[in-house]
Amino acid sequence: MDTSPLAIHVTGLQNSYGKLEVLKGVDIAVASGSIFALLGSNGAGKTTVVRILSTLLKPDGGSASVNGFDAVSQPDKVRASISLTGQFAAVDQILTGRENLIMVARLRQVKNPRQVADDLLERFGLTDAGGRRVATYSGGMRRRLDIAMSLIGDPPVIFLDEPTTGLDPEARIEVWKEIQSLAGRGTTVLLTTQYLEEAEKLADRIAILHQGTIIVSGTLADLRQLLPPVQAELVERQPTLEEIFLSIVGTKEMQR
Q1: Which of 58, 79, 168, 196 fits a 20 to 30 Å CA distance from 234?
Q2: Which domains does the chain have, with CATH numbers?
């Protein structure tokens, strides 16, 4: 049993937009220093969960804590503990990569903002491009810069809301490497994604959010146990996460 302290703890989370129930009692537990993938189709409620955890939206019911702080009653402490990277890179295209990093470092009142910027440019392989305007960057470079900006101040928890949307396969792999590096340094990462291969490659634990509830949660090995055993022919093949997802979600649709 995993006894790691929880960086994110969600119990019975509920949220509605008018008469539309988006979250119907979501439970999530994320261990510190792990990568947790929240899977779901468009409209499943993934971004709503992230907005509540990042204090941008108050839930209608349930509780949510991040880094030991309640998202509703202690929003300032939660915000000081997190960083959020959305679906589109939040970078200023007029500024250079280095200027973007320096600006954020100053806003967060970090010491030696220029040194912080230079260190992050080197860490993310952007040193040569640091003096160029971000408008000249590729999609993968912008996303790496966006993630680098989110690390300023060393937040213990990072939310990545569909961070590789719109990226080509090569750029996606670059971002995957950076996400794995974050967890390797002890940062907790909550990743929302529609890309099943992304979750399969990166996540320590996976939860599938469907029609406002978590229908399954566990390691990839746990989820594989939910499907019938493979039949060995010439080579035994384990089911992919895509096959697991479609099997589980399809079953739920048939039960409606």
Answers
A1: 196
A2: 6-255 (3.40.50.300)
Q: Which two tokens stand for residue 189?
A: 């990462």
pLDDT tens-digit series, residues 133-175: 999 998 888 888 988 898 898 899 999 988 887 777 877 887 8
The structure's pTM equals 0.81
Distant-in-sequence contacts of 162-167, Cβ < 8 A, 24+ apart: 162/46, 162/47, 162/86, 162/87, 162/192, 162/193, 162/194, 163/85, 163/87, 163/191, 163/193, 164/193, 164/195, 164/198, 165/87, 165/88, 165/194, 166/88, 166/139, 167/139, 167/140, 167/143
At 212-223, the pLDDT tens digits run 999 999 998 888
DSSP string, 85-124: E-SS----SSSBHHHHHHHHHHHTT-SSHHHHHHHHHHHT
Q: Which residues contact 189 (CB under 8 A, 6 or more apart)?
A: 34, 35, 36, 157, 158, 160, 179, 182, 183
d(C-alpha 63, C-alpha 14), whole Å: 9
Minimal CA–CA distance to 126: which of 109, 107, 111, 140?
A: 140
Q: Which residues of 139-161 are buried (b: 16+ CB within 10 A; e: fewer)?
A: bbbbbbbbbbbbbbeebbbbbbb
